[in-house]
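Why should sequence recovery work at all? Because a backbone constrains its sequence more than one might expect. Tight turns favour small or flexible residues, buried strands favour hydrophobic ones, and helices have their own preferences. The token representation captures these environments compactly. In the example below, the structure is given first.
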């Protein structure tokens, strides 16, 4: 019942931050996006991968494989931050 109330109030443009289930779910989603698409964390993983290779804990093949995956992950993270995924967009133009 609360979900239906939230959706109906949302359609009318009425939101009560902190009391709305939809608002709470959006906050959780935004936090998850920030954690998932964080370029600094990926850059740190790339540095760690390089250090492991330099200390001889990774073979050349493992290093190259990990580095390729991490560079792809970095591109996705940078796109995610560029797109500003935390901004809600309504296709009808209402916000």
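From this structural description, the recovered sequence reads:
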């Amino acid at each position: 019942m609360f979900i239906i109330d939230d959706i109906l109030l949302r359609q009318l443009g009425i939101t009560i931050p902190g009391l709305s289930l939809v608002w709470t779910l959006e906050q959780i989603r935004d936090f998850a996006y920030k954690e998932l698409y964080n370029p600094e964390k990926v850059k740190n993983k790339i540095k760690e991968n390089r250090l492991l290779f330099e200390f001889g804990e990774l073979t050349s093949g493992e290093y190259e494989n990990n580095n390729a995956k991490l560079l792809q992950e970095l591109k996705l993270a940078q796109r995610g931050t560029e797109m500003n995924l935390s901004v809600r967009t309504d296709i009808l133009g209402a916000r």
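A few observations help interpret the result. The chain has a mean pLDDT of 79.
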